[in-house]
Amino acid sequence: MVKRVGAFGEVMMRLEVPGHDLLIQSNRLKYSFSGSGVNVVSAMTRYGYAGLLVSRLPVNPLGDAAESYLRGLGLSTEYVRRGGQYIGMYFLENGYGARPGRVTYSNRMESSFNIAPEGTYPFATVASGMDAIHFCGITLAMNDSVRLAMKQLAQAVKEQGGTVVFDCNYRPALWGDQGYAMAKPHYEEMLHLSDIVLMNERDALHILGLNTDKVQREEQLTELIPLVAERYGVRTLAGTHRTIYSDNRHCLQGYMFKEGVFAYSEPLTFSVYDRIGAGDAFASGIMYGELEGWMPAETISFAATAGMLAHTVAGDTPMASTGDIIQARNSTVRDVTR
Questions:
Q1: pLDDT, tens digit (0-9, with 9 covering 90-100), for 133-165
Q2: Residues 1-36: b if buried by 16+ CB within 10 A, e if exposed
Q3: CA angle at 171 for the pair 142 and 242, rounded to the nearest 5°
Q4: Residue 217 CB: number of other CB atoms within 10 A?
Q5: Residue 226 and residue 210: Cα distance in Å, rounded?
């Protein structure tokens, strides 16, 4: 049987300034739809899984366009509810050289997803037969109602024997003045519910408040991640370290911690075409390897390569198949495939 994977999260409208212009320079925008859950689950459908999204869209042509876009990615919209008037939007300005890219959010707190009333989603029905479900720290930051729904759905999936995946994805601007202090209890609840967690040592230090006298990131990682696994009962933790060079090249190395042992990918150095959504591609690779029962070394190599390839295509949504990723992982020649 085809495995069934889902995600709970907001569908965002991406409005991209063409090329490398600033928003104040351009009078044109290219739109598409995305979101962390959309990106992860659409990647899983390209790996051969049945993907679905649990979300809410407005009752207007924007909602229609977004739902059509989701179906075009191969996602089931059976649990995409309709209501409200607004969709969250973000404006993307692509960076160049010394100028970083910039994302500006608009209308997010009033989006249909973020104002969904209690009882919108049938959690027990969604959880039935779900092999894995993905949650994101960005969603956790929205409001108390969304947080409650997120935890209820995670609990329902866990009770049904499904795998709960949580990507920490901490965004300082979304948590307001209280920041880490406000976020910590909600993150801790999600960690206790999760089987697979995407995070690194900075999350452990700042969100969870763990301490270390180590200075180097690699040493902090090897000290703190096992503590997180033990304290919160997390089966698998994974994440990346990124180095950014001045010539538009990035270097990415992934780690995975499972059963008391670390596994690392080879450092991957590449040029960046579009960075947004690459972390979701990495997360999908970890989910895939875990659901397929791969050894950690194979899983982290696959996930890091998936993350690398996501930097090479336009848009948030990962487009690589398993064959594309395996070929890129094994190849040292970057030439035309004929």
A1: 999 999 999 999 999 999 999 999 999 999 999
A2: eebbbbbbbbbbbbbbbeeeeeeeeeeeeeebbbbb
A3: 145
A4: 12
A5: 12
- Asked whether residue 222 carries a pLDDT value surpassing 60, the answer given is yes
CB atoms inside a 10 Å sphere around CB 259: 8
- Judged against a pLDDT cut of 60, whether residue 333 lies above it is answered with no
pTM above threshold 0.90: yes
Question: What b/e sequence results for 151-173 when a residue is b if at least 16 CB atoms lie within 10 Å of its CB, and e otherwise?
Answer: bbbbebbbeeebbbbbbbbbeee
90 pairs with which residues across the strands? 14, 105
Mean pLDDT, the chain, integer: 94
pLDDT at residue number 336: 56
Q: How far apart are CA 229 and CA 232, in angstroms?
A: 6
- What's the mean pLDDT in 78-90? 96
| The two three-digit tokens of residue 270, written as one number | 């590449």
β-bridge pairing 12-16 and 4-8: unpaired
Which tokens go with 31? Answer: 């739109």
Residue 334, judged by CB atoms within 10 A of its CB (0-12, 13-18, 19+), counts as: exposed
What is the structure's pLDDT at 119?
A: 93
What SS3 state is found at 212? coil
CA distance 153 to 288: 21
331 Cβ contact list (under 8 Å, min separation 6): none
β-strands 236-244, 196-198 pairing? parallel
- Number of residues written out for the chain: 338
Cβ density class 272-304: b for 16+ within 10 Å, e for less: bebbbbbbbbbbbbbbbbbbeeeebeebbbbbb
pLDDT per residue over 2-42, tens digit each? 999 999 999 999 999 998 999 999 999 999 999 999 999 99
